[in-house]
Amino acid sequence: MNQKILKLENLLRFHTVFRQLHSLGQRRLAQWNHVFSSAYPVWTAQLCIRPWQTDPLIGAALSQYRLLVTKKEERSRKSQLFSTKSKKEVEVWIGMTVEELARVMEKDIDCIYEALMNTAIDLDSLEAHSRLDEVWIKEVIKKAGMKLKWSKLKQDKVRENKDAVRRPQADPALLTPRSPVVTIMGHVDHGKTTLLDKLRKTQVAAMEAGGITQHIGAFLVSLPSGEKITFLDTPGHAAFSAMRARGAQVTDIVILVVAADDGVMKQTVESIQHAKDAQVPLVLAINKCDKAGADPEKVKKELLAYDVVCEDYGGDVQAVHISALTGDNLMALAEATVALAEMLELKADFTGPVEGTVIESFTDKGRGPVTTAIIQRGTLRKGSILVAGKSWAKVRLMFDENGKTIHEACPSMPVGIVGWRDLPSAGDEILEVESEPRARAVVDWRKYELEQEKNKEDLKIIEEKRKEHQEAHQKAREKYGNIHWKERSFLKYQERKELKPLKAKEKEERDSHILPIIIKGDVDGSVEAIVNIMDTYDASHECELELVHFGVGDVSENDVNLAETFRGVIYGFNVNVGNVIQKSAAKKGVKIKLHKIIYHLIEDLQEELSSRLPCTVEEHPIGEASILATFSVTEGKKKVPVAGCRVQKGQLEKQKKFKLIRNGDVIWKGSLSSLKHHKDDVSIIKTGMDCGLSLSEEKIEFKVGDEIICYEEKQVPAKTSWDPG
């Protein structure tokens, strides 16, 4: 240390001396130049020999000085250049990822990791797609010597709203009377379709699977009086609640069908609620009055509890006693409906662009996407451009409920429409637009709106996940903050070890507790009903139910490939499967289950879920014995407790399992070490016989009055606890 100080002092002295010599040399040079240049011009070059050229000490000092001055000038020049040169400005935003930050900085990702070293952030958990907090973004920019500029999130250019909307209400003076739209509602199997069948004089009910309506049927019925009524026949099964609600929304009158021998049921109450929500008047049809045990008055009294008051009880609801099977009193029901329609003074605008509602939609092999619709305003003609939901159509073909081609459809008419580019959803609003480009613009706008809503939801979920990650990271820091780095490394190693990939057997066991399914239905409403039932699933703790895909139409090769990928099951409702598809599914080990009745499909799904559950073990008693005496026997050097028993019921089998019961509590379970009758070893002791037995566990002590139960364990298939109702 002393040597270093000494060297520094010598250097300072040397620098001072050298500056003095330099100034002295400059003065002498000026004097010599003045003298010799005037008197002896020839000798000037020879005599003007600089003293530092002859004196080695002065020469060394001057060379050292030049070196120091040169370095000082270079440093000042560099600092001037650095101060004049502006820092690079980097535009950043909140929530940007490591990869995005590296890209805007024009650096490698490793530079970001280097900048974040020796900070509180956990580099082990930091990935290229990890989002950085504001504090870490600032830290990286600062260490890189760059300038920070916060930018707002990029705002999409505000798009013009190009949606199609309903027209304003027309002048009441220009409206024309129209036929009523009547929805028939009620509980399953109360005779709704049979009633409509009699009114139409067709065999609709006979053609339905299991005699149950599976989707909405729309029919135009002409009465003998010349009146026309559009009837909507809705399903009564519990699964089709959404269809009944949709039927109530597009109707003018609801005919509530209640069986006189069955009374008010669950779907009856639900139908009443749908009618009230839609503010639609009711007509009560008490069906099956011809059956023994029919009690119409009981039905009327039960309905009082749901604010449905018949005229007999001072209310305004018309009640008609009918028999849909025999056709009794059906004309009275039709007249009551027409009378109510006249009171409502139903009118519509038959001119201008069409407005309507999709009642049902399905895919036809020859025609493509097809919808059943009710026209509510305007007159629909071939060539009209329609928009419904996120689909549009140029009407190529229209047909009635009998499949007959029609050329125009007026308000209150049910009509089948062909020409859709995509399949609309049941319940979508139908609006007519002026051209195909306009229809495309409407659909694009609706898709854009849906995408924006989805993006907002996704951002919300991402923010929630980010907060969860931050909280978890903070907890982890607190957990490892006060321990030695070696212990911290060991704990992290243990955690990584626990997250090792699952073995094939473990993965197979995990997958067996997940049931991926694919749903295919004939119409949109049926698929909707099945998906709604899936939403009621509440037994994920037993087996997870995963809806991979659902759609309208027959089972396709794509469905089979999807089921193979997810190891799932395909459920088809009122759809077909071609021979080629069946062979492909069999080859790939994919199960395809087809049904025509919805509750059969649900029962099948419950069985499939149950098959994925581990079997439960049940105990089946074989024999019972009571302990009458206790003693011990010597075997070698140890004493073994023995119970003297008498078999009260069944028989004792040595190879089976046994349990010891004392005061109603099981105190031991296991097997026997010996079973003897007198002095003979036996394998079976029957009812009424005495025996001596000892247990495999010698520490258990017997008491007189204890019971010995012989039983066997049987594995019983488990049943899912999910009950869709």
TrEMBL record:
The Swiss-Prot or TrEMBL record annotates one GO molecular function as:
GTPase activity
CDD domains, per the entry:
IF2_eIF5B, IF2_mtIF2_II, mtIF2_IVc
Does this entry carry the keyword Ligase? no
What keywords is this UniProt entry annotated with?
Answer: Coiled coil, GTP-binding, Initiation factor, Mitochondrion, Nucleotide-binding, Phosphoprotein, Protein biosynthesis, Transit peptide
Q: What is its main location?
A: mitochondrion
Give a single Pfam family match: EF-G_D2
GO terms for cellular component: intracellular organelle lumen; mitochondrion
Q: Which residues span the membrane? A: none
List residues of the Tr-type G domain: 177-347
Coiled-coil ranges (or none): 452-479
**Organism domain of life:** Eukaryota
Does the keyword Acyltransferase feature in the UniProt annotation? no
Cross-referenced InterPro entries, in alphabetical order? EF-G-like_DII (IPR053905), IF2_II (IPR044145), P-loop_NTPase (IPR027417), Small_GTP-bd (IPR005225), T_Tr_GTP-bd_dom (IPR000795), TF_IF2_bacterial-like (IPR000178), TIF_IF2 (IPR015760), TIF_IF2_dom3 (IPR023115)
**Localization per Swiss-Prot or TrEMBL:** Mitochondrion
Briefly state the protein's biological role.
One of the essential components for the initiation of protein synthesis. Protects formylmethionyl-tRNA from spontaneous hydrolysis and promotes its binding to the 30S ribosomal subunits. Also involved in the hydrolysis of GTP during the formation of the 70S ribosomal complex.
Query: Could you tell me which NCBIfam families the record lists for this protein?
Result: small_GTP
The family line of this record is:
Belongs to the TRAFAC class translation factor GTPase superfamily. Classic translation factor GTPase family. IF-2 subfamily.
Its quaternary structure? Monomer.
Q: Which HAMAP family match?
A: IF_2_B (MF_00100_B)
Q: What is this protein called?
A: Translation initiation factor IF-2, mitochondrial
Give the species: Mustela putorius furo (European domestic ferret)
